[in-house]
């Protein structure tokens, strides 16, 4: 049976294939894409399914289907989330409750950080407001484009908690201004697309709003999808490894990686296509379920 991208869609997430090897994932929970526990679990499961079930995805664009908002963050009324009521029959001591909370938080982190484990780049196309969890979700994407109407906030401090799903782990490594990152994290202050570009959080600010930033992100995804999927998967893995290790450690890791990957047929195909002035045709990257 042929692969049908729409089969990956669920109640609040739309998936289509605008170009060959490129998927467009759209968040679509009215009115503001607030994330309930069921929503973020579906999000994490989606990227697992793309990696395991889609035969040849080489790039994904993540955006919102809503006109004025990327996401308002957590659903503060979710009975399974932060608003869940205390169980009057639960007489567990604090240490046991902490163990239960730990398991829940780790599951949440894993669902949101799923894009980093994917063997293909994920490009965030952000417009409107991206609050709280919106920073967590986009921080672990490979590339971030923002529409000029986008605004951001590390909002968790305003509900009495430290951001714990990824913002504080990724942001200091992503941006070039640690002082400003701390200022935004400590205050919950809203910052604009131009602020995000200036601090290095987004690579481009696109004039316009949703339609324009999605179009730009899809064009980038189409370019990436034209390259060797093996080369792109390896590049993603090596860049991520470099972030978390010393230069010497990364060079050693790269040497081991390349000693296997240099045997690929993709190099011959890329050279032949260049010399023949034609578009290269690369084989499917079938098995690379986790990076």
TrEMBL record:
It comes from the Eukaryota. GO terms for cellular component: mitochondrion. Gene3D superfamilies: 2-enoyl-CoA Hydratase, Chain A, domain 1, Lyase 2-enoyl-coa Hydratase, Chain A, domain 2. The keyword Lipid metabolism applies. Pathway: Lipid metabolism; fatty acid beta-oxidation. One of its GO terms (molecular function) is delta(3,5)-delta(2,4)-dienoyl-CoA isomerase activity. The keyword Lipid metabolism applies. Keywords: Fatty acid metabolism, Isomerase, Lipid metabolism. Pfam families: ECH_1. GO terms for biological process: fatty acid metabolic process. SUPFAM superfamilies: ClpP/crotonase (SSF52096). Belongs to the enoyl-CoA hydratase/isomerase family. This is Uncharacterized protein. It comes from Marasmius oreades (fairy-ring Marasmius).
């Amino acid at each position: 049976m042929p692969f049908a991208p729409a089969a990956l869609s669920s109640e609040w997430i739309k998936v289509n294939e605008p170009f060959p090897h490129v998927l467009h994932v759209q968040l679509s929970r009215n009115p503001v894409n607030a994330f309930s526990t069921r929503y973020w679990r579906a999000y994490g499961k989606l990227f697992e399914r793309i990696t395991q079930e889609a035969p040849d995805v080489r790039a994904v664009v993540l955006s919102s289907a809503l006109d004025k908002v990327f996401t308002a963050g957590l659903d503060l009324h979710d009975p399974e989330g932060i608003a869940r009521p205390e169980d009057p029959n639960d007489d567990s001591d604090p240490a046991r409750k902490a163990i239960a909370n730990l398991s829940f938080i780790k599951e949440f982190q894993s669902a949101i950080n799923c894009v980093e484990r994917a063997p293909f780049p994920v490009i965030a196309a952000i417009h409107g407001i991206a609050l709280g969890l919106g920073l967590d979700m986009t921080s672990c994407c490979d590339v971030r484009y923002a529409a000029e109407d986008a605004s951001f906030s590390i909002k968790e401090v305003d509900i009495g908690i430290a951001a714990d799903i990824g913002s504080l782990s990724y942001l200091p490594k992503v941006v070039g201004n640690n002082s400003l990152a701390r200022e935004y994290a400590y205050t919950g202050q809203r910052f604009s697309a131009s602020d995000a570009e200036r601090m290095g959080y987004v690579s481009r600010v696109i004039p316009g709003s949703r339609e324009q930033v999605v179009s730009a992100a899809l064009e980038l995804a189409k370019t990436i999808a034209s390259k060797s999927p093996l080369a792109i998967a390896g590049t993603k893995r090596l860049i991520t490894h470099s972030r978390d290790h010393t230069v010497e450690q990364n060079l050693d890791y790269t040497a081991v990686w390349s000693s296997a990957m240099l045997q690929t047929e993709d190099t011959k195909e890329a050279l032949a296509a260049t010399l023949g002035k034609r578009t290269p045709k690369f084989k499917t990257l079938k098995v690379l379920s986790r990076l």
